[in-house]
Structures are given as C-alpha cells and as structure tokens.
Amino acid sequence: MTTTTTRAARPRAGGDNEGQWALGHREPLNHNEEFKATEDPLAVRERIEQTYAREGFASIPSDDLRGRFRWWGLYTQRRPGIDGGRTATLEPHELDDEYFMMRIRVDGQALTVRQLRAIADVSERYGRGTADVTDRQNIQLHWVRIEDVPAIWSALEEAGLSTTEACGDVPRAILGSPVAGIAAAELVDPTPAILEIKRRYIGNPELSNLPRKFKTAISWQWDTVPEINDVSFVGVVHPEHGPGFDLLVGGGLSTSAHFAQRLGAWVPLEEIPEVWEGVCAIFRDYGYRRLRNRARLKYLMADWGAARFREVLEGEYLHRSLVDGPAAEAPRAPIDHVGIHEQKDGRVYVGVTPIVGRVRGTTLRGLADAVERHGGGRIAFTPLQKVVVLDVDPAQAEALVTDLDALGLPARPSAWRRGTMACTGIEFCKLAIVDTKDRATALVEDLETRLADVEPQLGQPVGISLNGCPNSCARIQTSDIGLKGQIVRDADGNRVPGYQVHLGGQLGAEAGFGRKIRGHKVTEAELGDYVERVVRRYVADRQGDETFAQ
Ligand code: SF4
User: Fold this and answer.
1) Which of 82, 95, 101, 424 to mutate to test the pocket of ligand 1 (most atoms within 8 A of CB)?
2) How far is it between the farthest Cα atoms of the chain?
3) Residue 544, C-beta contacts closer than 8 angstroms, at least 6 positions apart
4) Which of 89, 120, 230, 499 meets the CB 3.0–4.6 Å disulfide criterion with 365?
C-alpha cells in the first residue's frame, strides 16, 4: 500500500486549512470527519451482527445509523408520506424510516444465474420484492429491516456478492463494460484489473476513510461514462507500446459539474491497480475535508490542474514517470448495448431495457429462468440502467427476446424508454423533493403515444433524466433534457412539485453540460406537454444529423 511522503505540495490559493492530511491538517473539521476519525467505519459490521440486529432499530446510535452504516451499503430510507416541500425543513431523525435501502455492488462483473437468483431471493424475502438497477451497475433493495441484515449478507456472500463499501466515503463500485471480454472491437479485457483492485483495496482500512466518495470506471470502450468519474481508464492503442489505457481524473456531477481531465498518460493493463491506488491515495491525502460540498476529487483537480496532478502522482506516489499517450476515442452517441449484437466468439449478447432501471425480484427470477432456457448463463448491468444477457447462441436470440419482452424487458424499446433515466426520488430518498421513478415511467408511456409519429425521424434517442433534488444521481447536466426536481409555482401561483430544466447536455465526443435556462421551470402536470413541444421543435428545426445538444 502506498503511503504519502512528507514532500508538501503547494497549498491552495489563500492557504486556508482545507483539512488536507498531506499538509498536516489532521484535526477533524466537521462531524463526518469526527466519526470517521473515532473508528474505522467498517468496524460497524460487528455491532450490526452482534447487537443491532438482535436489539432492533431503536438500539442504533446516530453516528452508526446515519454514518458508518453506509460503509456496508445501508441507508435509512425516507419515511413514507413526508411532502417534498418539507424535506429541507426537517431534522434527519424526522425523515428516517425504520427500514433501509441496501446497495449490492457488482463492480462491472457479469453475474451468473445463481447470483441473479440469490438477489431475487433476497429481494422477495427481505425487500418486499424491490430491486432497482442503478446507473452505477449496482442493485438497490428497499424495505430492509435491521433484524434481517445478517441473513441477507450471509445469502449474498454465499453467492459471491457483497455490500462492502457500496456507500460511504470510500472507493465505490467500479464501473466496467458489461461486454468486457466479448466485445468484437475489444483489444484488451480490463476485467483482471477490476478484480485486482477489488481484491486489494475494497474493504481495506488504508482507503476506507476518503474525504468523500470515489468513483471509478474501467473499460476498453467509452461505455462507462468515464468523463464523470473520479478516475477512469479507457482503452487506447499507443503507436509504439500497443494497447493500453488513457487515464482521466477528477470528473463528477452533483451540484457542481466537472468533466474529468486527461493526464496525458498511457497505462498498460498490469499497471492499472498501482496507478488507481496512487490516484485514490492522492485523494485521501490531499483531498479537501473541511466542507462536505467541496470534498470531491474534482475540486482538488480544478485547483491543481492535470499537469500538477500528474506531477504529484508520479513524484510522490508512483516514484516513476508514466508513459505519455494518446487520447481514447469517444463516441458521438452513448453506447447502451440495447438490442442484439455479435460477440467476438460468434455468439451474441442481448441488451434489454427496464423502464428507468426498475425491476422486481420476480423480474430477476424470470430473467434467470429465461437465461437458463435459452443458454448464455451470464447477465450484466449497464451504467445506463440497462440489462444485458451475454453469450447467447444466435439461434436462441429471438426466443430469448420474446421471453424477456414478456417480463417487461424489451430489446427493441421505444426511444423514450431507451433514453429516460431516473434517480431513486421521493419514494425512498431522504433528500428528494419530488417523485421520479413513477413520474418517469408515466412520462415514457405518455411520450410513446404522443410522439409515435416523430420517433422514426429521431435517429438516436433523446435522453431525458429526472432527478428528485439538486444532486445529480440521474445525470441531469449531461442529458438532452435534464429535469431537476424542485417545488415550483403553477399558473395559479400554487407551490407544486416540478422541475428546473437543463437543455442540451451530452457525454462522449462532444461532451458538454446542458444549459440551465433561467426561470425555465415546468410543473409535474405539464411535463408531457413540455417534452412534446421541445422534441417536435428539435425534429422540425435540426439540420442534417445534428444532435439534440447542437
Ligand atoms: Fe436522492 Fe437527489 Fe440523488 Fe435523487 S438526485 S437519489 S433525490 S439525492
């Protein structure tokens, strides 16, 4: 494990104490830093198993309940019936329900049918059948009781799954291509690097107290939203050294969006874990810990710039120079893997589309049955809330598509179903102001009728993202139509749920953040009319193959 040297980097302009450990500022400057300094949050697992699961919800002290539990993928969910307009006015304990959201990390790996069945069993037995596919390839369960957590861990771990560091100020689940190892154009499968990072560092106390969350994406192709992760490795061919990975650092959305910056370095597959550790350790040591809303790596990167970041990485952490390298090629449109596609071994993979990632335990069980009936045997999730069945015999593909369609998982979805994403929203999230999942589902069904005539002219789907609050769990700033939940005034002056609109964001080759149009807000009730107007105008006015963002 790398440890930082004492060579001091220049403090930020102004020289304020930002709580950077490497500059000697070890005293905790906020409550989160205090409870992390008191004890490694990973230690809470023993108390969950030995005490809280036996004595019940009331026995859990606040720092464990709202703090350390996250290190094991557990958040209290929102108490039902609390109006979104009251979210900001209530104390945390007033928003807490006695049930938990539990996040299962997948780390870009394909699941086996057995693992899928284990998740379906846990969902049905302990989570009232809930199971959402998130935009970080995790599965989220809801309605989990503290009494059941040890049994859930035991069932998941027996199947080779875990919730370790699924939330909290830690390295979160690593995004990986759902088609790693099988994609026709892939020159190097980065899966061994993902597995090695997981083996060495996840659950490792050396990296379990970061300033805030740390997101990673590793893929041969540009299908893991690398520009908005804290650290990303994307496949590229070096003219002299051959296939390797381009290194990007410091991306993230939330309330202040930043794209990751290239360090200009080329990293071979076998060096990814070491370089990843160096970047993560810089974040641990130099990351800002004073204010939670400035604690992501993107703020340090914005102050340092890519050249200085690389200098510190090479000089203080790797103790060697990295090889200069070319930029990875970004696609013009998002790669979502929906439909039937050839693998390099002659088989095919089939990408299907749950609406905004929402499935049920019963859906996962049906998916497992269908995969067993038609071969394949492996299933992956995508960062765009899609599901991909891998390794399918081409002769079985259409039968599989028919079975998945019957489960509500179409391989040939409408453009609206394919392009719409939504965060957890008011149903379960304590920060939410408005509903998202149900609203987005209704919107998709509405648009499928209203805009059936223009759909064939679209070319690529128009991306629509719904967030329940100013955070950006559904990536509103990089969507064609980004909708940020807030309370707005309707035509009669009443305060009602609605959205601030961001228009024209995109990822990939022409990445840019959507424009927040001042005063441009829409109520929930007006949403269908609004999206129809915007899309019809886009279709009528565009020149050639101009995208929505252009
Ligand atoms: Fe919750 Fe806000 Fe994230 Fe939605 S965007 S899941 S409401 S924090």
Assistant:
1) 424
2) 66
3) none
4) 120
pLDDT in tens, 417-469: 999 999 999 999 999 999 999 999 999 999 999 999 999 888 888 999 999 99
Torsions phi, psi for 253 (to 5 deg): -105, -90
* Residue with CA nearest ligand 1 atom 2: 469
Bridge partners of 499, per DSSP, are 485, 522
**Alpha carbon nearest to ligand 1 atom 3, residue:** 473
Q: Estimate the crossing angle of helix 113-126 against helix 149-158, to 10 degrees.
A: 170
Distance CA 527, CA 488 (A): 13
Segment (H or E) for 234: strand 231-238
Q: In what order do the strands lie in the sheet with 130-133?
A: 74-78, 96-104, 139-144, 130-133, 358-360
Local structure of residue 204 (DSSP, 8 states): -
Compute the distance between CA of residue 149 and CA of residue 357 in angstroms, rounded to an integer. 24
Supply the pTM of this predicted model.
0.94
Closest CA to 439 of 424, 419, 461, 449: 424
Give the binding-site residues of ligand 1, using a 6 Å CB cut-off.
423-425, 429, 431-432, 467-469, 471, 473
Average pLDDT, the chain: 94
Q: Give Cβ neighbours of residue 468 (< 8 Å, ≥ 6 apart).
A: 84, 423, 424, 425, 426, 429, 431, 432, 433, 434, 435, 436, 485
Per the listing, tokens 């009251």 go with: 86
Distance 22 CA to ligand 1 centre (A): 32
Neighbours of 343 (CB within 10 A): 18
Ligand 1, residues 132, 423, 486, 502: which to mutate, most atoms within 8 A of Cβ?
Answer: 423
Measuring CA to CA, which residue among 17, 12, 72 is closest to residue 41?
72
For residue 421, list its beta bridge partners: 465
Gap from CA of 404 to ligand 1 centroid (Å): 29
Of ligand 1's listed atoms, the one at least distance from the Cα of 429 is 1
What does the DSSP assignment read for 449-468? HHTTTTGGG-SSPPPEEEES
Ligand 1: residue of 133, 167, 431, 502 to mutate (most ligand atoms within 8 A of CB) is: 431
Q: Please, which residues have CB within 8 angstroms of residue 136's CB and are 6 or more apart in sequence?
A: 172, 173, 175, 215, 383
Using the mean position of ligand 1's atoms as its centre, give its distance from the Cα of residue 510 in Å: 26
Quick one: CA dihedral 214, 140, 412, 394, positive or negative? positive
Tell me which residue of 338, 347, 488 sits closest to 416, measured CA to CA: 338
Task: Identify whether the C-beta of residue 310 lies closer than 8 Å to the C-beta of residue 263.
Answer: yes
What is the 516 CA–ligand 1 centroid distance (Å)? Answer: 18
ipTM: 0.99
Amino acid letter, residue 126: Y
Residue with tokens 């503290």: 146
Which atom number of ligand 1 is nearest to the Cα of residue 425? 7
